[in-house]
Fold this sequence. Notes:
By secondary structure, the protein is an alpha+beta fold. It has helices spanning about 5-15, 15-30, 40-45, 45-60, 70-85, 90-110, 115-155, 165-180, 195-205, 205-220, 245-260, 285-300, and strands spanning about 185-195, 230-235, 235-240, 265, 270, 270-280, 310. Helix 2 crosses helix 6 and helix 10 (about 205-220) packs across helix 11.
Amino acid sequence: MDAFQDISQQLRAGAWDIVEDWLEESKLNMPPKKVYPGGDEEILDELPTLIGGIAKVIQDPMYLMDLEAGGNLHLVCRQFGRLRHEAGYQIDKLLSDFSLLRQKLWLFCERFVSLDDNDLFELERRLNLAVDRMAATTAEAYYTRSCAELIELAQKDKLTGFLHLKAFQRLLDNELARAKRYHYPLSLVSIDIDDFKRYNLEEGRLEGNRLLQNIARELSGVIRGTDFAARFAGDEFAVLMPQTTLAQARTAAERMRRTVRQLRRDDHPVTVSLGLASYPEPAEDRDSLVKQAQKAMAQAQQDGGDVIKVVKST
């Protein structure tokens, strides 16, 4: 039997022993008071598969093809990176674990195989090829997940978790284009907190921020999963409702109004003024949709607040 084929078989047979040895030392490097992510079976179960992939590359470097995009080992490495990102790993810990795995694999080979100098050099080359490629693919998946989260965070208002104005405008453009293409309605609800400026002056900005967060939480609980909420500025919110007629939007807005009213301050309900507008009637584009929804909201405020107003066709 070829020496490298023999090593490959021994590595596959001893995969769990290597994992246990790696696990014991890896735990020692974890920060205090942090649950070890490797204890999660979904993460730990990937390691024997990775060791099996390394064993195949040691048997024949042509198996590096399985680490190319679309290959099974490539997918396993990407999943490995995503899971560790979700578990709160730092990238340096992720890479150090691969370095530790390399050491454990080499120690295993030294204990169980006997090779001349040339074969030892080739074994080290094949082992490093596989581990380096796996570490790079795993790190790439880790960074991809991190970048996706950063992009999502960059689009959101830090206080409420709603979309900020610019992100909402881009989204509104996309949804309007889709509504025009597929000929379905779209509605916008503009929301403003009644007497918020006075509340801020009397209670302070900290309490005002807390009220904004509470209202955002209540609104999040009643809008649909297909709707999009944004904080326009100050105490003004907006909810975009794709594939929603004006009549349907009014029903949803009434649900929002009643939900916010359940909040209390000084034994009085918190109230909001809501304005509605829809595409294609009466609004025809983004600017007119936003303008008319805000105009209806201003009318609701003038009428004393805690009411819904609708822009009518002209």
